[in-house]
Design brief:
The chain is an alpha+beta fold. About 35% of the residues lie in helices and about 30% in strands. Strands 1-2-3-4-5-12-6-11-10-9-8-7 form a twelve-stranded mixed sheet, sandwiched between helices. A hairpin with a 7-residue loop joins β3 and β4. α5 crosses α8.
């Protein structure tokens, strides 16, 4: 029987043949998780792997069987002021190689990184389309930190009359709507750093994570990473006319590699501005723009915590429907090392 070999996978120095093998592997996993999606192109995979922002440190490994990759693992951590106790990881194994101890071997490498970096808590997500992931985390003694849904909106079924009503009801005398396409404007960057902190008010359930405090540099690094991946971001915001303060925002992501799917990112309104219909206004105005300027888009996908009732209510009214479940798990390094 051919020997399995675990080797670091560094996207900055990987050969074309290694990238091809990685792309084949990723597409097999994606076909399980997202059966209706087209496979990833080689160029897309290479860009995705190479476009990690500098504040994110990612360690990768591939399990080789000859010239074929049968499993891979990623351990990533942020070099930031907050969440210095945390290491995120991801392990994927081809179906025919599961339950053979490969994930456990990869987990040992991840735990070594956590130990070296003094990260006491490991976090990962599992997808309901691949039940083996949850089974592995339960065997490990991990505990669920948050239950989430991927919700999907079929644009052909979108109620355009609803979009019109939500925009008509918006408090336009008190607030104004604006748009940033692509990178954030330099003169607004400090205000945008503060604006993004609204997402610290989103439900965390049992997740042991701290508030994220963004910096100007990190936001610019993320934008460079998006550009490298050929992903476009649109950000719509509402501003209070009286004070000039930013009250909330919503953002979407689109890539020419995947022209039929739009990804909904953050939507948040500061607590003191809630109850004015600003969330509905932002979502409706953004969808109106997508319909007008992105005719290739057929579906919008978003992730929501099951506990985020206000956002789920808006999405449900828009016609988003549950597509699948996923769970975020956390486990102490100590327990993993045992």
């Amino acid at each position: 029987m051919m020997q399995l070999e675990i080797k670091p996978f560094d996207p900055q120095v990987a050969t074309q043949a290694e990238f091809v093998a990685y792309n084949v592997f990723i597409n097999r996993i994606q076909a399980e998780m997202w059966p209706e999606d087209p496979p990833s192109e080689l160029d897309e995979t290479i860009r995705e792997l190479r476009a990690t922002p500098p504040f994110v440190v990612a360690h990768r490994w591939a399990v080789w069987r000859g010239s074929e990759i049968i499993a891979r693992a990623v351990a990533s951590l942020w070099r930031t002021e907050d969440n210095q106790h945390l290491l995120n990881f991801d392990i994927a194994v081809l179906p025919e190689w599961r339950r053979q101890g490969i994930a456990t071997r990869l987990l040992k490498l991840i735990a070594d990184v956590a130990q070296r970096e003094q990260r006491r808590l490991l976090m990962t997500s599992t997808d309901s389309a691949i039940p083996a992931g949850e089974a592995f985390m339960r065997r490990l003694g991990a505990r669920p930190g948050q239950a989430n849904l991927t919700n999907q909106l079929n644009l052909a079924e979108l109620d355009r009359e609803l979009l019109r009503r939500w925009q008509e009801r918006a408090p336009k005398d008190e607030f104004e709507l604006g748009l940033w396409e692509g990178p954030y404007p330099e003169e607004e960057l400090d205000a945008i750093v503060r604006l993004r902190e609204v997402m610290n008010t989103a439900p965390r359930d049992n997740l042991e994570i701290e508030d994220v405090k963004w910096t100007r540099e990190q936001l610019r690094q993320i934008e460079a990473s998006l550009a490298e991946r050929k992903t476009e971001r649109w950000t719509m915001y509402v501003r209070e006319r009286k004070t000039g303060k930013l009250a909330g925002y919503t953002e979407v992501f689109w890539s020419a590699f995947e022209p039929e799917t739009l990804y909904q990112g953050d939507t948040g309104v500061f607590p003191e501005y809630r109850g004015h219909g600003l969330g509905k206004w932002l979502k409706a105005a953004m969808l109106e723009k997508v319909l007008r300027d992105r005719p290739t888009v057929k579906r919008v996908r978003t992730g929501n915590a099951n506990s985020n009732a206000p956002m789920l209510k808006i999405n449900c009214e828009l016609g988003f429907r549950p597509y699948k479940q996923w769970t975020t798990w956390q486990v102490e390094l100590e327990k993993v090392l045992e």
